[in-house]
Specification:
- The chain has helices at residues 23-40, 59-69, 87-101, 134-149, 190-199, 217-235, 255-261, 289-296, 300-304, 318-332; strands at 3-8, 44-47, 74-81, 105-110, 183-187, 202-205, 208-209, 243-247, 249-251, 270-274, 277-281, 285-287, 307-312.
- By secondary structure, the protein is of the alpha/beta class.
- It has one domain (3-336): Luciferase-like domain (TIM Barrel), CATH 3.20.20.
- The strands form 3 sheets. The chain has an 8-stranded parallel β-barrel, surrounded by 7 helices. A 3-stranded antiparallel β-sheet has the order 7-11-10, covered by helices on one side. A two-stranded parallel ribbon has the order 9-12.
- Helix 2 (59-69) links the parallel strand 2 (44-47) and strand 3.
- Helix 2 runs parallel beside helix 3 (87-101), helix 3 packs across helix 4 and helix 8 crosses helix 10 (318-332).
- The longest helix has 19 residues, at 217-235.
- The radius of gyration is 20 Å and the shape is globular.
Amino acid sequence: MKNIGFLSFGHWTPSPQSQTRSAADVLLQSIDLAVAAEELGADGAYFRVHHFARQLASPFPLLSAVGARTSRIEIGTGVIDMRYENPLYMVEDASAADLISGGRLQLGISRGSPQQVIEGYKYFGYAPAEGETDADMARRHTAVFLQGLEGQGFARPNPRPMFPNPPGLLRLEPHSEGLRERIWWGAGTRATAEWAAQQGMNLMSSTLLTEDTGVPFHELQAEQIRVFRKEWQNAGHSFTPRVSVSRSIFAITDDRDRAYFGHGGQESDQVGHIDGGIARFGRSYADEPDRLVEQLAEDSAIAEADTLLLTVPNQLGVEYNAHVIESILTHVAPELGWR
């Protein structure tokens, strides 16, 4: 059995071929797709976060709106770039969104993906400290964020406050009990997966891995997951972690599918370079349902994970993306024992 959700990159463009021609289109259609996915029986609605791009950016207004329109589906990100974040303000935003949704937030965070602009986090007012890298800064922000989610008081109260205070040091409000255990780290290497386990964060295995050992992507990703779980056990945390992987999977069931994806999926991994280092990208899948079942049964990382996020082509509109999700839930997932 697996949790199956969708992951939207939230692209928009004024092109007449796109169903999302403005930021408003993307935001409103993202809410509608989450509602549709819940009605279809999907388990999660997740959204990418990118700055300085025609894509979804500030996640918490969207997550709150989805939470108010739905009642069951998990709501998450994949991922928030912690280089850009004020971690204490983020505690307040995340806790508010989680309370609105009734405790359904599954928040993916990370050092972040390659940026649209050079050192974009500096425009947001953040820069690495002396001797730090930008990845170090992201982890420092993360540590403050995680501590704030614990709900412990740390701020000295004003002796003459405008409103009465509870006794002792003050914490950030609102506080959402249990949210700390629903934070995920987007890891691109085995080493960062180990670090995530040490910090007590769930694992969101990246859509690309920034290391290459010569084995297929899914095997390297499966190894990353096993390393994470071993380190989690060594750390002795009090709850069971979750692990997600993302895949582009399209079941060819009608003429629309054939028009968009009838050429098939990417039959093999891609190896490239990002930020000066090597990176391996996983293949995509597009085929008739029975053949998809055979292909996906060989994906060892999907087998290791408890959560599968289906990356959707959001620019094709809500109706078609709901069809994409429904096709997997109906024709593929039951045959693989995911349902």
